[in-house]
Amino acid sequence: MNQKLIKQTTLDVEERTFTVRYYERRTTNGASRYSAEVEFHEDDYMILDADSLNGLETNLTRLVRASIYSRMLVETRRAA
Q: What CA–CA distance (Å, rounded) separates 11 from 78?
């Protein structure tokens, strides 16, 4: 099951810009699955999966925003 990069974009959330790479892969029964890799920092990624590219893009902004807030909470607790 090889993945194929189908597009790379940027996503602007909370005045920050993130690189997003979209991949497609075929399952053993021939169906397409999609994933998006969001790069927060060079060693901090989030990967989302979905059955459709539209569904993936729809959920992406909301989930990236939630991930940003959770990372901010962790950083705040570490600083305290």
A: 27
